[in-house]
Structure formats: C-alpha cells, structure tokens
Design goal:
Distance between the termini: 20 Å
Largest sheet: none
Number of domains: 1
Shape: globular
Order of helices and strands: HHHHHHHHHHHHHHH
Structural class: mainly alpha
Helix content: over 70%
Amino acid sequence: MWYLISILSGFFFASADALSKKESQRTPAIILAWVREFYALPFLLLLLFFIRIPELQPGFWQAMIICVAIDLITTFLYMRAIQIAPLSLTVPYLGLSPIFLLLIPTIVLGERLTGIGIVGVILVSIGTYTLQIDRVKYGLFEPWLAIFKNRGSLYMFCVAILYSVTATYGKVAIMKSSPLFMTIIYFSLLAIGFTLIVLFTERKQYRTLYEYPVQKLGIGLAMALMAITHFTAIGMIQVAYMISIKRLSLLFAIVYGALLFKETNLKERLLGGLFIIAGAAFIAFA
C-alpha cells in the first residue's frame, strides 16, 4: 500500500511543479512559493473535521521547527529553479536525495540500509551525468560540473540535499503525532512564514497574491494531495524507501516538460531520469 501511495505522491508533486512553472511566467518565485503552501490550506484544513487530534509527544515541535525553517529556504530555491530552467533539467536532480538518505536517517532515526546501496549511488551518479551528456564535448567531467554552472540545476541540487533532512525530521514529527495532523500543522506554519516574508519583500506585488485564483487553487490542490500521500506513506515505511519510490515524479516531470513546455534534449534527460530512479530503487531496497 505504501508503494502505491508513494507513486501517487510523486505524480501530485510533478503536477504541482508543472502548474507552478506555468504560473511562474507571471508570478515572482517568492510569491509562487507562498502560493504552494497557502492555497493548499483550504483543502488540508478540511481534514480537521475527519481526523482525531493526537497527543503530541516530546520532540514534535523541535522537529517541526527544523522542517519549517529549512523548507522556507528550499521552497523558494525550488520555485526559482523551475522558473529559470526547464523542468526536465532541474527536477531530475531531486533523484540525488536518496544518496543523502543513506546517511541522515541512519543518524537521526537509526534506520539501516545494506551495502547494495553503493550500487544505487553509482547508478544515480551515472544518471546525473547523463542528464547533461550533451556537454561532454566540452570535457569528460563537464556533465557533472554543469550542475554548478546552470543556476537552476545548482538550486535543485541544494534542494535535494535539504529535502533529505526535512524528510527525515518530518518522519520524526509524524512519530510524535500523526501523519495527517502533522501535514496540517506543517503547511500552516509554512504559509505563515511565507506570508510574513511576502509582506516585507513584495509590497508592490500584492495583486499577484489573489489574481488568477482558479490556477492558484489548482496548484494548492495538487500540493495538498501530495502532502497527504507523502506523509501517510512516510509514516508506513523507512524514509529512504518512500522517497526513492516517490522519485518517479522525475519521469512525470520530464513528460510534463515535453507535453506542456516543448522542452528539448528529452531523450538524454529521460535516460538520465531512468538511471537515477534505478539507483534510487537500489538504495531503497538495500
């Protein structure tokens, strides 16, 4: 069951990205980050009528503070990345997060993976190389170095690292409460945080907060469904397992890039995405 829920989470995540990229043509990155959290709230708050409010255990708020503080940064970087670069050249770098999940959940949660994870790391590295293999004409190591030359790719690389931290501490918060309650609190705090940031940094852009409400609600619904499935699945299985399967969103993102935005070099990026997903699967089941 967790496997199917994780795949659905990846699909909703890629859908939110595609809708966000379309909206980014008329909306600044920081406001778009706010949209993804704030417009998800109407759907998430409805859950309060159907769930039991759990007793919060010690450590819940510490984990939440860590997650929210980091996610205020990652959401902005994520929105900026897909705003300035193709989906098929940015989102696949999220496939690198399972590499960092080899270590972080082991330290924080005591989750153990076996040595076969090394094979997964190699496959992920090959996939990362393949994503920009067209640059090999400039040098053998250029496809990897390109991560640091393309700002969109670099931003998403940073997001991949930080996501491995928030995924781990997100599970801590779930263990100290419940998946759906944690989801509601998490998005509420993120919405408050981004609201404060927008109020101080985008005073001349207030109109964009409520323009095109149908499109913004579409982003919010996709994010709400992603969050519900994400935290439900991650509460059922080891973090590395769930995140690795969720990374099927890479393939969904590449398809969206081709269909909606007519992105090019898709064969190389699709092959790279497949390598990354294969590596993530090895890591997940190590």
